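Re: [ENG-882] Designed sequences occasionally contain unexpected residues at chain ends

Forwarding the minimal case from QA. Structure tokens:
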């Protein structure tokens, strides 16, 4: 089998940056990383594919566990073709794998959306689909963000069972509000199914967050955004995420959703193994021409940011 060798790169592996380096690939496997000097000493065949990176950074493929859409395609399309287009477009931006994320919708549309994602799995020509992320519908109507209030629901195990059945066991994570009545029962159900529960779109008190952790919530959705804020008399959701070392979190570190100094605070406070960078990208992200729709509502583009 011919080799592919990418050379003249700064290779990033873990915490290390290796300038003037090369990576040798055979099939789908990285077989060796070595210096540019060793590259010049190697004898490659005519069939081998040699790529000059021109001094660029070469990093492992990115994983986005929270993304609704990309390049004009989105999970709200309820279409397998749209999911496959997302996978193809994301690969061109260095994304190796992702979790298509569904907004709260009508019950029937959520089932259709889940089935569309599951049907796309294994057919990707680009980024691999890891499974379904449900951002709701069991969230707080006081912390909606861009979610639509009419589709937010109280905890309903029968509905959860229907969504799980539609996924054929491929729901991998789910955003919930820990303060909702019935959350302990939902957490027990999801823990038994291997679904990672994450606190988000929540108006939880600090005590609610601790109770949620005791029930099995171990992750959180886009920290600082759409959750109860830190207060000197009650740390609330943000405080619980900062204080509790075992509670991991997503963060949207784009310089708009969260102030850069708060990102620095988070990195200083939590081990990096408990921080997950996500885009939470919407359908218009990287879309070249309008109209721009997100969650079936028109948005407009101003100064690098989509606004409603």
């Amino acid at each position: 089998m011919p080799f592919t060798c990418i050379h003249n790169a700064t290779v990033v592996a873990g915490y290390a940056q290796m300038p003037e380096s090369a990576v040798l690939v055979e099939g789908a496997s990285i077989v060796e990383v070595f210096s540019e000097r060793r590259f010049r000493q190697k004898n490659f065949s005519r069939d081998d594919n040699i790529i000059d990176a021109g001094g660029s950074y070469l990093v492992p493929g990115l994983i986005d566990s929270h993304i609704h859409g990309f390049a004009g395609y989105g999970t709200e399309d309820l279409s397998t073709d749209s999911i496959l287009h997302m996978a193809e477009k994301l690969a061109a931006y260095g994304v190796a794998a992702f979790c298509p994320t569904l907004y709260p919708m009508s019950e029937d549309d959520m089932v259709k959306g889940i089935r569309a994602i599951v049907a796309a799995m294994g057919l990707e020509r680009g980024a691999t689909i890891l499974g379904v992320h449900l951002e709701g519908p069991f969230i707080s109507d006081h912390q909606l963000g861009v979610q639509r209030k009419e589709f937010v629901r109280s905890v309903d195990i029968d509905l959860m069972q229907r969504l799980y059945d539609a996924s054929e066991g491929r729901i991998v994570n789910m955003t919930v509000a820990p303060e909702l009545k019935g959350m302990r029962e939902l957490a027990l159900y999801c823990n038994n199914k291997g679904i990672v529960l994450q606190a988000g779109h929540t108006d939880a008190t600090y005590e609610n967050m601790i109770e949620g952790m005791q029930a099995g919530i171990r992750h959180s959705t886009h920290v600082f955004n759409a959750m109860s804020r830190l207060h000197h008399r009650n740390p609330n959701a943000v405080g619980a995420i900062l204080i509790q070392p075992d509670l991991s979190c997503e963060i949207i570190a784009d310089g708009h959703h969260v102030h850069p100094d708060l990102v620095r605070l988070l990195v200083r406070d939590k081990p990096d193994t408990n921080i997950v960078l996500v885009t939470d990208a919407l359908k218009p992200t990287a879309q070249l021409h309008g109209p721009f729709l997100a969650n079936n509502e028109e948005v407009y583009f101003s100064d690098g940011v989509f606004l409603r």
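QA comment: On inspection the terminal residues look reasonable. Residues 62-301 form a domain with the TIM Barrel fold (CATH 3.20.20.140). Proposing we downgrade this to a documentation issue.
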